[in-house]
Amino acid sequence: MASRALDGGWGWAIVVASFLAQLLAYGSPQSVGVLYPEWLHAFQEGKGLTAWVGSLVAGVGLIASPVCSACVDNFGARPVTIFSGVMVAGGLMLSAFAPNVQFLIFSYGIVVGLGCGLVYAATLTITCQYFDKRRGLALGIVTTGTSVGAFIYATAQNELIVLYGLDGCLLIIGALALNLMACAGFMRPLDMPGYYLKRRAALERNTERQLLEKPRPDELKMAPGSATSPQDKSLMGKELLIAIDGMDAGEKKPGGFLARLGLMKVIKKKRRAYSSYMSSMYELLQNQAMVAFCIGVFLFSLGAFPPVLLIEDVAQSQGLVEEVAVIPLVSIGAIATCVGKLALGILVDISWINSMYLYAFTMFAGGVALLLIPVVQSYLGLQILTAVLGFFSGNWSITSYVTTKTVGLDKLTQAHGIVMFFGGFGIMLGPPVVGWFFDWTQSYDLAFYFSGGCVLLGALVLSLLTLPCRSRKPSPDDDDDDRPDVQYTGKCDKVASVA
């Protein structure tokens, strides 16, 4: 990778394209709370079952993040973004024709969720490749696309539902999502993806082998009067080999003893790699701080995500507002999250602030806000609590920072995958659990007491289990001023780790 290609130039076009891609992909899923009351009214199903739609669209992409990152690694950001555009747009348009909630769970929850996961991995990967010293700034700009998209789409979907109905709204935002393919056009790769490198290496080996073989007599015959130089014949041979390489790759090779021996070697190599992976995962889970952080992220996701999906229905159920306001609560929470990401990112760079305890404090403040939601009796109070919860939900921006401080740069790739799995699992369970509480009690009060209790418990566990870490040995990756600056993104071309 040429140094002149980093930290500027076309990289800023990549930042703009990635920002727009995240805005287009995550705009509707992040503001799904506006659609939730409409689905309840349209399908007349329980709140717990309907809540699975919003929880899956947010959680599936996180849980599948290792697979999404592997796709980007092998095929590149541009093809993956094009494919994800088809998935997101197709899932949204299919949802317009959903006959029931079960179909909606598949079309909106799973298809759109996987498409968003692919966009997320692709945009962060290509941004990391184009930036070095300014990588933190570039990633910060790109990842605010989700919050800005939620702010815009919450109001836009509300107006589109009034004008064209729920089905028309989904068709229009699905058509808008097709612009993801236009964003992909700007994602010019700096390095050839792994799949093409493997294919080129196989082609070169095949070409060399066949060129070294003794040619058949009929291949040496030339038409009378032809004047082809040896160099031209060599070029013609290479072109022929390139043309037939695809056919050769698909042909079966003789299945003798050597072929079986080679297959056994491949199996043993894969088994050793798998054993090594599981062993390193076991070592990570022996780290007390790592386990505490995973538990904290799971409990925070379990309790803090449901308001994103259910807050509009809470306001309507309590009679605080008759219909979705011009500026929905989802929009207020989204813009507060955007501010929180930037503010917490600045705070965590201060040398005397412990990032783990800062994360625990954001969990504590978010838990208190959740406990107060059933208490407020005014729409203004609900707006304030939504903004507070949204601000402290911006702690996702420092997740990779805390993970790096916990396990070091060498283990960041695998550790962050584990953390994201716990986070995605919590996001998937949270809204259905809260919805079932409502179906059982016909009130959101107990549900939000449960959510707030989970978040406070996570803050307590994270604080208590990381107390011994004050005296732990500093990791080799820690700087003298106890801050890794932007180095924690050094492997994000494989992880896509900033939320």
Key terms for this structure?
single chain; 499 residues; mainly alpha; 21 helices; 75% helix; globular; disordered C terminus
Total count of strands: 0
The whole-number mean of residue pLDDT values reads: 76
Instruction: Determine the number of helices (DSSP H or I, runs of at least 4 residues).
Output: 21
| Major sheet | none
H/E element string? HHHHHHHHHHHHHHHHHHHHH
Strand content: under 5%
Straight-line distance between termini: 26 Å
What fraction, in percent, of the residue positions are helical?
Answer: over 70%
Radius of gyration: 26 Å
Supply the helix-strand structural class: mainly alpha
What global shape is seen? globular
- Residue windows where pLDDT falls under 50 for at least 5 positions: 237-255, 469-499
Q: Could you give a short description of this structure?
A:
This protein is 75% helix and 0% strand.
Describe the 3D structure:
It is a single chain. With 499 residues, the protein is an all-alpha fold. It is built from 21 helices and no strands. The protein has helices at residues 10-30, 35-43, 47-63, 65-75, 77-95, 101-130, 135-177, 180-184, 194-212, 217-220, 230-250, 257-284, 288-304, 306-317, 329-348, 355-372, 379-392, 399-407, 412-441, 445-465, 492-495. Helix 18 (399-407) packs across helix 19 (412-441). The two termini are 26 Å apart. The relative contact order is 0.13. Residues 237-255 and 469-499 have low confidence and may be disordered.
